[in-house]
Amino acid sequence: MRVADLVELTRAPAAFSIPGDAWSGAAHGAGGRGWAMPLASTCLYWSGMAFNDWCDREVDARERPERPIPSGRVTPAAALGIAAGLGAAGLGTAALLGGRSAVAIGAPLAMMVVAYDAAAKDAPVGPLAMASTRGLDVLLGAHASPAAAWQPALAMTAHTAGLTWLSRGEVRGTRPGIAAAVTAGTLAVAAATAHAAHHDRDAGRVARLAGVGLAAAYAVVVGRAQARAAADPTADAVRTATRTGIGGFSLLQGAWLARRGRLAAAAAVVGAGPAYRSLSRRWSPT
């Protein structure tokens, strides 16, 4: 198995969307080692991607034969072993960095990843199951005081739910109504984020302006791609909107980080966007 096959199996480029979750949570929480928690989150994310391909190996053989397992570049046993190893590494890292409070969130997060891939993906609750993993990822960063991070956790959850719902049309296309509803959800998340940033009295003027500006950029970039899918609900348009939505995490996360005055972290998260877009042209993040 080549490194390139491992990168494709785990959707490695999409990991650029992960650190901002935990950092957003850490910015709203208090104490703990939330700033280092993306190490655990990334392992769990990659584990979920590998396990997803193992669960989908028969479907992919028909619909996406170019993927690592059906193409023969990665054996099913190897994919399952990689998923298990990365999952164990993620939970172990969470325990090392945050102790019991981090494990109390990391363990349900890992279980939801497995449940989504193994059972919930094609069920009506699939988008909500996937969305819960991103919300829990935010709370993992705020593991010492997770209730303080409910707002960014809810924003990431809502964004992920819409993104997952739309992504179900990547192979056969979607219905215009679905894409339109997801677009409306994106605009609602952007509006709520901008409102929270604008009215945060603990943040400075620059931080508030940055938060509002990034929320607006998120609405334009992600909402525009989803609106195009509503107008042209083909599989190609849905895949483009899905890739854009994954990249849009950085703008949404940056807005919540800026809201709390974490401008350097916001810049780092948003600055990862070009790297994500460059790598995703070679290795699909979906």
Walkthrough of the structure:
The protein is an all-alpha fold and 286 residues long. It has one domain: Orthogonal Bundle (Tetracycline Repressor, domain 2), CATH 1.10.357. The chain contains 12 helices and no strands. The model has no long low-confidence stretch (mean pLDDT 92).
Annotation keywords:
single chain; 286 residues; mainly alpha; Tetracycline Repressor, domain 2; 12 helices; 75% helix; 0% strand; globular
Please give a quick description of this structure:
The protein is mostly helical and 286 residues long. The chain has helices spanning 3-10, 19-28, 38-55, 57-63, 76-120, 126-141, 150-167, 176-198, 205-231, 235-259, 263-271, 273-280.
- Number of structurally distinct domains: 1
Distance between the first and last residues' Cα: 20 Å
Tell me the fraction of residues in β-strands, as a range.
Answer: under 5%
What is the structural class?
mainly alpha
CATH topology: Tetracycline Repressor, domain 2
